[in-house]
């Protein structure tokens, strides 16, 4: 409720009491604010500054990094998204030069080709407005920085895997916000790029071997409700020799999950009956074919 229930008290000096939540007391708000400040302060203690020289404009800047000893893994999702306690390393995965606007995932930052630098200066730096960030980043800042990195990848025409991985991480950030609409949009872009990379790029791709990439393509199809395609990719992983046990088990688990939860028994039975009928028809046809010459 946005009504100013204390209107009329302005003449007594209370002219700044507006948009009051009458039943959420001031003490509670102060406690919440204090708790949040403590949380931010604690997160700050897990960070350190790393000096970086920008390969585009040669400016020195400080990039925030998470101390390795501070990583606390809570769980991992089926598409390899890792959930962390205390502080989230994904928030600090993008290095950004505030002077020229060049940004990328830190693993790619120094890999820019010399002949691509001018493209950054022309398409990014010419429009760039320096941005000051707080000491500790949150999910919204992370999304902004990942999108800026994605724009840089697009401008310099990076390989599909780089754009796809940026899209995948943006999708994960939207997952943290429970924004399923935007999560699915970026999962879709990630799938398109990873499929292209699978057929056109050398492995490993961001640490993933061929079979791990196959599994990820299957799982992204699963999350996008492309169940038939997901089953196809999972089956390919399962029957391949030399696949890591963990990846093969993930593929088996996800294949069974889809069959149990998304494909009706009738549909599965119908497919099995169709296969049986096809086999039977083939046998009859083969028999008739033989009889034709040996009657």
Oligomer: single chain
Helix content: 40-55%
Overall outline: globular
What count of structural domains?
3
List the helices and strands and how they pair.
Layout: H1 26-44, E1 47-53, E2 60-66, E3 73-76, E4 82-84, E5 94-96, E6 103-105, H2 117-123, H3 139-155, H4 160-176, H5 180-200, H6 210-223, H7 227-239, H8 245-261, H9 265-293
Antiparallel strand pairs: 1-2, 3-4, 5-6
Helix pairs in contact: 3-4, 4-5, 5-6, 6-7, 6-8, 7-8
Briefly characterize the structure:
The chain has 295 residues and is mostly helical.
Please characterize this protein's 3D structure:
It is a single chain. With 295 residues, the protein is mainly α. It has three domains: 1-42, no CATH class; 45-207, no CATH class; 209-278. The chain is 52% helix and 9% strand. The protein is built from nine helices and six strands, in the order αββββββαααααααα. α5 (180-200) runs antiparallel to α6 (210-223). The protein is globular and about 80 Å long. The protein starts with 25 loop residues before the first helix and ends with a helix. The relative contact order is 0.06. The model is unreliable at 268-273 and 282-295 (pLDDT under 50).
Key terms for this structure?
3 domains; 295 residues; 52% helix; two-stranded antiparallel sheet; 9 helices; disordered C terminus
